[in-house]
Amino acid sequence: MLKEVLEYLDPQAGQNFIDCTLGGAGYSMAIAKKIGKGGRVLSFDMDKMAINNATRIFEEENINNITLINDNFRNLSKNAKDFFPDKEEGIFDGIVFDLGLSSAQLEDRDRGFSFKLDAPLDMSFGNTDILGGDSTEKIVNSYGQDELVKIFKDYGEEKFARKIAEKIVEKRKENKIKTTLDLVGTIEGAVPASYRRGKIHFATKVFQALRIATNQELQNIEEALPQSVNLLRPGGRIIVISYHSLEDRIVKRFFKKESIDCICPPSFPVCACGHKAKLEMISKKPLTPSDEELKGNPRSRSAKMRIVEKK
Ligand SMILES: C[S@@+](CC[C@H](N)C(=O)[O-])C[C@H]1O[C@@H](n2cnc3c(N)ncnc32)[C@H](O)[C@@H]1O
């Protein structure tokens, strides 16, 4: 949703932005071109592959106003302060999050994001030290059955969560589940035939759930949102594009809470919380990709974009 990102961030010469999710560097480069030499983009990615790829592109295209940071965006404030040590909070003109995984990661044959490609069972975006959580292989091969059920239900809304977890526990007693196709085979053996023939691939939800758990995706966005508010100047904007309802719910609730003055329970006769709105919603409803974008990039169909402005 690059067109919309540029429209709502409206980057001007000399301004400073943060791209929390560099990926293929499309957003970072488009913003960098608009702000020119006097401005700067701090671009985060947990994935070394994204950082290396962007380094090469920026060299080739002679782009010098982007600083690449190979870290989790949950460490937003710390990194922003490291790069702007003499400045206080409230200096950025806009911050964008384009959550989830990139096409390059999904299509990389050596990584375990796709249930269609055989690869080691590793769905991490970055190194485990940046991740802070457990590897996919560890989750699948060592978590208790109930923990697995919870992950598949909470993060995948998978209706056969218990059956799949049971099958995983049974299988791993014989042999470790080491690859994506080992896991796909295990899921296949746990779900009914009608589900195996369903419209969406039967492994989709379990793969999504394991990816979210491995990368602690919900915790990351929950921790990063308050930091991003503090880093913005008044009038600066935050844009979040999410791809599943769990993430979108966190973003929606946070933006809503920070856009109202009092958060006391409705039964309170007078305000006791003293909460003051820091944000203003720019769009009440989330924006979705245009028909034109959907034609060129069908994977964007689940995208929801929310925008707020700092007061
Ligand atoms: C959907 S892609 C971003 C695409 C990007 N907007 C572009 O123009 O190509 C998401 C990227 O964010 C990265 N990512 C996801 N969660 C992250 C986190 N918590 N910290 C840093 N990077 C993260 C992924 O590794 C991936 O490269």
Q: How would you briefly describe this protein structure?
A:
It is built from 15 helices and 7 strands. By secondary structure, the chain is α/β, with parallel strands linked by helices. Bound molecules: S-adenosylmethionine.
Residue runs with pLDDT of under 50 for 5 or more positions: none
Mean pLDDT: 93
Helix fraction, binned, reads 40-55%
The backbone outline, from C-alpha atoms, is globular
Radius of gyration: 21 Å
Find the count of extended strands (DSSP E, 2+ residues).
Answer: 7
Q: Give the CA-CA distance, first to last residue.
A: 25 Å
Describe the structure.
It contains 15 helices and 7 strands. The chain is an alpha/beta fold and 311 residues long. The structure holds S-adenosylmethionine (SAM). Residues 21, 23-27, 44-47, 50, 72-74, 98, 100-102, 105, 125, 220 line the site of S-adenosylmethionine.
Keyword list:
globular, 311 residues, binds S-adenosylmethionine, alpha/beta
Write the layout of secondary structure elements.
Layout: H1 2-9, E1 16-19, H2 26-35, E2 40-44, H3 48-61, E3 66-69, H4 76-83, E4 92-98, H5 103-107, H6 128-131, H7 136-142, H8 145-156, H9 161-174, H10 180-188, H11 193-196, H12 204-215, H13 217-231, E5 232-242, H14 245-257, E6 279-281, H15 291-296, E7 304-310
